[in-house]
Amino acid sequence: MVVLLDDSGAPIGTADKRLVHGPDTPLHLAFSCYGFDADGRMLLTRRSLAKRTWPGVWTNACCGHPAPGEDVEDAVVRRVRRELGVEPHDLRLVLPDFRYRAVAPDGTVEHEVCPVFVAELPTTLAPDPDEVLECAWVAPSAFLELAETAPFLLSPWSVLQAAEFRRGSALTPIDPASAFREPADH
Q1: Is residue 63 flagged as an active site residue?
Q2: Which parts of the chain are beta strand (E)?
Q3: Virtual CA dihedral for 83, 70, 94, 17, nearest 10 degrees?
Q4: Which residues, listed in sequence order, are joined to residue 32 by a DSSP beta bridge?
Q5: Could you tell me the CA-to-CA distances from 165 to 34, 61, 132, 155, 185 in Å, in that order?
Q6: Which one of 42, 52, 57, 183 has the fewest beta carbons within 10 angstroms of its own beta carbon?
Q7: 87 catalytic residue (yes or no)
Q8: What whole-number distance in Å separates Cα of residue 67 and Cα of residue 1?
Q9: Residues 182, 40 contacting (CB under 8 angstroms)
Q10: pLDDT greater at residue 29 or residue 175
């Protein structure tokens, strides 16, 4: 189930996730999480080819939908555990008011209020193959450059979120440079 929202972002009901994503997707609650290792590298994941929306594209570490009545931070932890098989640490909300609407090539629409988090993740992952096709640890600057030069390789939400990080949006309660810092030299 997903939480349906009105235009102001207030909950107005719930709907079955399998039925809500289509050509007329109503506004609903979601989240995105960007993962970093202790050296400042950022995790990109490639969505499983079995995913209904944007299969096979690269995106942030994890995204999903809180269940009705579930705290968004708890949902992030639950999905990181399920999708990546690891425990996130130092979870921080960085774009609390992010929202977007995107249309996939098959006409499926994503229409979400999608708070964005960053977290520190262990580098040894156990990804769920139903969710994640492959993973890559990259310099944050490489992700930002990819979002600018080849956005078709990434999920539309990650491209829009990258633009927010590049701008250092006033929505961000922490300095984006601290989340998107360069990896330490080894």
Answers
A1: yes
A2: 2-5, 11-15, 28-29, 31-36, 42-47, 58-59, 62-64, 89-95, 99-103, 109-113, 116-120, 132-138
A3: 60
A4: 63, 116
A5: 11, 16, 24, 15, 23
A6: 52
A7: no
A8: 6
A9: yes
A10: 29
What is the enclosing helix (H) or strand (E) of 173?
Answer: none
Residue of 33, 63, 110, 114 marked active site: 63
pLDDT tens digits for 142-175?
A: 999 999 999 999 999 999 999 999 887 433 333 4
Nearest Cα residue to 38 out of 181, 160, 134: 181
Q: What's the pLDDT band for 178 if we cut at 50, 70, 90?
A: low
- For residues 53, 94, 119 and 175, what is the CA-based torsion angle, rounded to 10 degrees? 130
Instruction: Please report how the helices 156-167 and 140-149 are oriented relative to each other, as an axis angle in degrees rounded to 10.
Output: 120
| Contact present, 36 and 45 (Cβ < 8 Å) | no
Q: What is the pLDDT of residues 33-67, one digit of tens each?
A: 999 999 989 999 999 999 988 999 999 999 999 99
